[in-house]
Batch of 2 targets.
Target 1
Amino acid sequence: MSKFKKKKGGDLPPVNTASLPDIVFMLLFFFMVVTVLRNNELMIRNELPKANEVEKLKKDRSVFIFAGEPSRQYQAKFGTEGKIQIGDKFTDVSSLQFALTEAREKLRPELQDRVVVALKVDKETNTGLVTDIKEELRDLNMVKIIYIAAPGSELDN
Amino acid sequence: MARRATPEVNAGSMADIAFLLLIFFLVTTTIEKDKGIARQLPPKQDENVPPPPLKQKNIFIVSVNQNDQLLVEEELMELKDLKQAAIDFLDNGGAPSGSPEYCKHCKGKSDPSSSDNPDKAVISVQNDRLTSYRMYIAVQNELVGAYNQLRNRESVRLFGPDFVYTDVKNAINEGKYQGNVDAAEEKLKQVQALFPLKLSEAEPKKRGE
């Protein structure tokens, strides 16, 4: 009886934390590798519409076009009409071709012919603006586009 | 020899430093989730060339007005019914059996007043310039969904229950497909040919027209 009691009363051995730094480092490296620091600040509101019949975007051959109404701190300057942003500046529909050609030249040369234009457009934008962008894209012969969408379905709400 | 042993560096705070960095990267990371509806724009058309003639029954007209309301084949429709309506139209197979346009794989009602076969059937979407982009994507999503559902059905019929068109296509895109990718792509093409994606977009109407 006394034997049994003695065992139970023994001190709990401290948890060995020697491998904690290793685990933390492992996590750290994982996040360091997957992190992409944003290099173009968004100057527009960019809430994507929802869709579920989606395909994955191949990032190495894509050019991004953002569109939507300017975010609050830019509204005094640029108004609330839908605007197009490429890189980190606003672009007009008329100068879109130039901006796109410039953006395409930043891609790897062997992928420039297979460029995919990714449209990230705010869901409250008018379709007319998107139509204008598409007309310009057809003029440039960049006909592969992808409408970036958030996962989900518009039918749910 | 007066060589003193170098004192061991105290590594006790290593974990703290690593945690600090870890939390920084945790906070700044946004795992990019870029997925979307891929589409090929039609090439620029010569304006002098008239468009090829299409029979009225082979066109499925979807129009959206500036209040985001749907008009499908002259009837007001809810978004949730659009997919089924599009499937019924594409899968109709209205051409009589024996004619060269007869559709063998169609399972629809064979209504002679609807589309002849999926190859002839064209879905035309007309937007107002003031339609919201949310609605535009929702409509496109439903229509692509209709095509995908029909293609899934055909791929399962032709190549067995493990070959679901959308699953295989996504697996190939992500490089996760187990097995012969070229053969699978060939099969996908066959399925695509049964229900070719024919979505046309009409020039949008001007404000309030």
Note: Chain B touches chain A through 51 residues (CB under 8 Å).
Target 2
Amino acid sequence: MSLATDPQPSAAAQLSPERLREAYRLMLAIRRFDERALELYRAGEIRGTTHPYIGMEAVAVGVCSALEPDDYVSSTHRGHGHTIAKGGDMRRMMAELLGRATGYCGGKGGSMHIADMERNMLGANGIVGGGMGLATGAALTAKLRGARQVAICFFGDGALNQGILHEVSNLAAIWQLPVVYVCENNQYAMSARADWSVAGGDPAGRARAYGIPGVTVDGMDFFAVYDAASALVARARRGEGPAYLVCDTYRYHGHHAGDPLNYRDRAEVERWRRHDPIERLRRALVERGVLSAAEADALDQQVQAAVEDAVAFAKSSPEPSVDQLMTDIYA
Amino acid sequence: MAVPTAPAAGAPSAGGTVRHLTYAEALNEALREEMRRDPSVFVMGEDVAVWGGGGVFGVTRGLVEEFGPERVRDTPISEEAIAAVAVGAALTGSRPVAEIMYVDFMGLAMDPIANQAAKLRYMFGGKARVPVVIRAQEGAGRGNAAQHSQSLEAWFCHIPGLKVVTPSTPYDAKGLLKAAIRDDNPVIFLEHKVLYGLRGPVPEGEYTVPLGVADVKREGRHVTVVGIHTMVHKALQAAEQLAAEGIELEVIDPRTLVPLDEETIVNSVRKTGRLIVSHEAYRNAGYGAEIVSRVVEAAFDYLDAPPQRVCARDVPVPYAAPLEQAALPQVADLVATARALVRKEL
Amino acid sequence: MATPVTMPVLGLTMEEGTIAQWLKREGEPVEKDEPLLLVETDKATVEVPAPASGVLRRIVVPPGQTVPVKTVIAEIAAPDEPVAAPPPSAPPAAGPGGAPQVAAPARPLTPGPAAAGGDGGGSRVFVSPRARRRARELGLDPTTLRGSGPRGRVVEEDVLAAAAVITTAPAERVLATPLARKLAEEHGLDLAAVAGSGPGGRITQDDVRRALEERAAVAAPPPAAQAPVAPLSRLRRLTAERMAASARSVARVTLHLEADFTEAARFRQQLAPEFARLGVPRLPWDALLVKAAGLALAEHPRLLAQWVEGAGLRQPSGVHVGVAVALEPEGLVVPVLRDADTRSLRALTADLLTLVEKARAGRLLPDEMQGGTFTITNLGAYRIDGFTPIINPPETAILGVGRIADQPAVVDGQLAIRTRCTLSLSFDHRVVDGAPAAAFLRRLAELLERPYALLGI
């Protein structure tokens, strides 16, 4: 699919070493955070469920690296990656997962509802497609204010088949709203394979129906995601309207902790793992001399320590007192 | 039902000259004043700007001329997007007033209302505000048949986090809409299609009607009648008829169903010992049942007879006039029920 | 507007009723709530009050005929009001659960509770929550009242009417259905001599007829001219019902104790001028009795506990002593002196004088007759020595006071003239046993025999 303005192939190349290192650190943080969350889930310390972002880190970090701090992001049920990529605080995230008063939502939301309104991260969302209206509405606010903010709407391949996507895509197109719809095509909506459930082949092709750009990239490649996102975000910021960005990616783990995973075979998982986004970025950064192998290992240690610190913080935090039950509700 | 012509009770209290505006004009004035006052307020919905100079019922008439198409936004027929985008805009600092043309179409917009608007502030631990107003009109009486005549307020009342407003007079309509727009939480603002032409006193100048305060439209000693929308007016007519028999109805318009001014209703029942709730919504699982429950819980020891519901029949609203009228609660039903209560037949 | 009189629903399972007797003739004026007719059901004969004031314009259903409930049986209209269309000539043939025909709402508004539900219990008394609350406030047992609401539901109005006549009666009464009573009066038959076969020994119409037949069989001369029957006043009827209900449900035991009031008489004589100086003109015996009872009750609170049917005992929070005051020509009221245990004798006396005066003038306010937890009834003025008072529900005990008179008595082995009085305590054995009740009565007597504690120690 061609773009009205093609991304500069060198966009990612122009990122400073600091920003590249930061991108790598964020991707590591997402992975280690969710690995630890899975452990805690299996240990019975996380209630309900949690949806690991592991394997998809290049998408969240690639897109968010292309944003300004006050740009908006709406997320999905699989939201930890977006929060971390937007600069969220792992301590408050982990505290929320463990249902503590110090969590992002004071223990009222849990994994599926973490929002960081100070960073314009409009929340994970338990309804598939639930964030689509929020991002589009945020883009409308930006347009009405004359602000130069852009909104990113993350959603999965499952949400491609929700009616709301059609409605907001059409509305954003006719109103020329500054919003980029980022489809994280991780190949499965729970057990439903995307190549079965999504009609018409490449989902980006649907953008054509609205007369807006649609781009598909390798979602396991930080640079590819970053380049495409930069171009589409810049375009939206210029007032040229919305676009679709489809990132082909893969979730290494199940839909959620506890997924029977009877619908895909190990060989397929291994095939995707060979393209692991973190390994690829690490190799690239080491090759470019941005990072030595030792520095990369040290960064990983640092990240793991930060995750452990978050767990310790969460575990030492009090549970919410019951007198908070009826606060933050007004009707 | 004919448009009620008698101005309803509930004398306006704000200062200034009192004019007689229609319910639609009063709503229009509320929108206009709030849009002038606060640039973050904007209007969106199907046919709100161009059609007939502003809205199928004229509520948004003339607004696009004054505020321009950016703040008075016609939308495609996309009810879910209208609601969802309004919620997103509200979450990011705008104060949208979104219109769903008929409450019957709200089924298409329920996720953004019930799962997003209602819950975000709480789910996010209080760190978000959702100052959105979603307007719609409901009610029967114009032969719009089953998919354009329902009164669905109970749907919204069931969801914690939504305020639900049902004005019955021009005065209340204006004051409540202004209060709803200024509220930092989602408000479902339900108008009644038959009331748009109702004229009533609306003072010049600024006033609001706070959400959660009922209005005693008529005082009486014998039976408390809590009416919603048109049933307020029908209850006042019934009260007039029964007054001749020495039976006094106390007619209460809750004005907002959530939050509900339980105190005013309960105090009235403490006095009268008898309660009728009345709405055009279906009787089964209607909001009247909630009001009855609250009264039974709070004032059981004051009831001298079983509370009664005078509501629409549990049937899709039919088209033909005799059928439609038979499906709706009428003045005669209120009269008969009140009389039966007072005569100890119930 | 003409008011139809319909066959009332008098019980949960009642589907039809028989007109036993019209108490008014066509064309006769009637007052609302005045007894209008007697209806026989399969369970009882019940007096039905007029639903409105006016003239009984037309009797639709004659005596002896059985019709479904809610059938129009008569019409009451204003004296000058033309009766429009002729009323239905025949009662509607409503089957079991037949639809109401009169004054029914435009459409069925409630499916109604399972009217003749499977439990078949037709004897339950329905009381509206509001009536129940009002009865609680007034210290009445609402289940002893007859309700004017649907299915005989007791509504607030019924309780208020009953409260206007809080009564205690000095003696037991004969239980009889209104129809039986009426029949007996018509034939000059003394009901006390008739054995009752109805519930709680109630004398029914059949009992009276049987007794009359027996009397005829003895070939007694026919009774003289049949005396006209005055229907019971509402006050009389309510009194009767309450007394009968008390006698029916309470396990009453009466204890008698002859107390020595010599000291109390001296005490009273010496205190009276002091009270007069303080603006309390008289010091009646009842005041001393109220104060003594208050102090004794505070020490024996079990006598205050109230039987709550099916639930247990309720312990009221205050010692509020009612004093029965007879009214002319008939009836009793019981003004209540609050906090008789803690308030001073002087204050209680002043209140008693005021309340008795108001009672005799018929000016007592309802709340001056409410909330009593113990009653004193004094028949000493009638030269009665002792009696067995009926308990005033929901109270548990009542003190009967006999005449206070000088009597020969043995003091320290010597015959002496002493002022004596018999105290009779009726109590509910369900609530309190004989020994504690006796202990209370003994303590009461002690307080009166050494009366100085009544001034407060």
Note: Chain B is about 35% helix and 20% strand.
